[in-house]
Design a protein that fits this description.
The protein is of the alpha/beta class and 396 residues long. It has nine helices and 16 strands. Helices cover 26% and strands 18% of the residues. The strands form five sheets. A five-stranded parallel beta sheet has the order 9-8-7-12-13, with no helix packed on it. Strands 3-2-6-5 form a four-stranded mixed beta sheet, with no helix packed on it. It has a three-stranded antiparallel beta sheet with strand order 14-15-16. α5 packs parallel to α8 and α8 crosses α9. The N terminus and C terminus are likely disordered.
Length: 396
């Protein structure tokens, strides 16, 4: 994260209390979504823009959507205005209200709601066709080139020779950041079996985290959860929302604007990874709209819906990913056969001799079958590999 340290240092300087005395600092309390948040003491030389930056880190509401009410009388001054030049309302700590919506709350996957009937998620079914049309678009191709050029990937742990790539979303896939202010323990954010899952798949995959959230928040939470220094697995690198861009696709005949995580951005910088040896796991299928053959959509995780910690999505996913990794290894040893199976999808040759690739779907059914085979197996030790059932690690 070294190339982002400047932002952290800037935030520290914003909240730094002047050593000459309390008279040179001011305390602010913000009401956001019904709760009060006491901000750290701010220097009176801090600006409105710096307050907004601090609020973005604290609430995940982007500056462009923030509306501050009650900080001063009348219209809020320009971002360059310093606190010392403001007439703040009330006594310290000065209270005001923040209106705005975090990125994570803008779009809600219908599959994550309890009040809707069971429906077929047809939005995910047309990604192959959409991806083809996307590649024909010069405008979006230029956008991909632009984001690829400006993205500086800071490697935390070097890629290992021969390992496949596993790109993992964070919020509602591995963790639940929502209502974080009510947590007694930061570790409560974890989806059940998170460490066991990452440890298991690390044996076959290099791990990359790609989250649709701000860098500073992402770094802090991953550090608190011990994901960057766990001795059982290593994270290769981390990407945040600044490496994503918006595209327009169609949903039920209407234009639908949403952001995507273009895997080509990674492949262009690491030539040994491609669509043939990459998985992308996310709770939002639209995030891998440009690379549907690599996408594995899992059920979103919400702690409020799983108070007893009974969620078993990650153990199922581990069984599937290890199964696919073994298939890839086996197929490399049998490259001369007419039908092969790659890491992310099943591939075969049609009558014309062309390679036909199918995107990943129905992974959960495969994983559940593997688990059933495990339950009936009398073998001990090992994992499910290459279709043979054997007992997974006790932790899973």
């Amino acid at each position: 994260f070294s190339h982002r340290d400047g932002g952290v240092q800037r935030m520290n300087s914003i909240s730094h209390a002047n050593s000459t005395g309390a008279v040179d600092t001011v305390e602010l309390k913000v009401k956001f979504q019904g709760k009060f948040i006491l901000l750290p003491p701010l220097s009176r030389s801090s600006t409105i823009g710096e307050i907004k930056l601090l609020l973005e880190d604290t609430t995940l509401v982007p500056i462009c959507r923030q509306k501050l009410i009650g900080l001063v009388k009348g219209k809020l001054p320009d971002d360059e205005m310093m606190i010392r030049d403001l007439v703040l309302k009330g006594k310290a700590p000065h209270q005001f209200t923040l209106l705005g919506t975090p990125d994570s709350q803008l779009l809600v996957d219908p599959a994550d709601r309890d009040d809707l009937p069971e429906v077929v998620d047809d939005f995910n079914l047309n990604f192959v066709e959409f991806s083809t049309s996307w590649h024909r678009s010069r405008r979006n191709a230029r956008k991909l080139a632009e984001f690829t050029a400006k993205t500086d990937i800071s490697v935390i742990s070097e890629p290992r020779p021969g390992k496949q790539l596993l790109v993992l979303d964070l919020d509602h896939t591995l963790l639940d950041f929502s209502k974080h202010g009510q947590l007694q323990n930061t570790m409560e954010m974890q989806r059940p079996y998170l460490d066991e899952f990452l440890s298991a798949v690390f044996t076959s995959y290099d791990l990359v985290i790609w989250s649709q959230t701000s860098w500073r928040w992402l770094e802090v939470k991953m550090t608190e959860l011990g994901m960057l220094n766990n001795p059982r697995y290593r994270i290769c690198f981390v990407l945040d929302k600044t490496s994503m861009f918006s595209i327009i696709s169609q949903r039920k005949g209407k234009d639908f604007k949403h952001q995507v995580k273009p895997l080509q951005l990674i492949w262009s910088k690491f030539a040994h990874w491609s669509a043939e040896n990459t998985f992308h796991v996310d709770d939002l299928g639209r995030n891998f709209a440009l690379n549907p053959s690599c996408g594995v959509k899992i059920r979103a995780y919400y702690r409020a819906k799983d108070p007893m910690g009974e969620d078993r999505e990650l153990p199922l996913l581990a069984a599937y990913l290890l199964f696919r990794a073994n298939q890839a290894s086996s197929s490399s040893d049998q490259a001369s056969t007419s039908t092969t199976t790659t890491v992310g999808r099943t591939s075969s040759h049609d009558v014309t001799g062309h390679d036909v690739t199918y995107d990943v779907r129905g992974w959960r059914a495969i994983a559940e079958k593997l688990v059933q085979e495990l339950a009936s197996s009398q073998r001990q030790g090992g994992t499910v590999m290459g279709g043979a059932a054997s007992e997974p690690p006790d932790s899973l």
